[in-house]
Amino acid sequence: MLTDNDSRSWAFGTALAASRTRPERSRTYRPQTNGKVERFHRTMAAQWLFSRTWTVNQGRYEALRAWLEHYN
Description:
By secondary structure, the chain is mainly alpha-helical. The chain is built from 3 helices and 2 strands, in the order E-H-E-H-H. It has one domain (2-71).
C-alpha cells in the first residue's frame, strides 16, 4: 500500500499486517508520486464509495472487493 510520509497509527499497521499487505511510502519531495495516490482515492470515491447509497456495511465491502478486481 502506497501512502504519504505521515505517521501511521497502530491500528493501520495492524490491519496491514493482518492482510499481509506490504506498506510503501512515497518519496519525499516528489509530488508526482503523491498525485498518483490522490488520483486513486478520487477515482475510488467516485466509482465505488459515492456511486450509490450503502445501507449495510457488508454490501459496501463486497462492492469494494469487486471494484478493486475491476480496477486492477
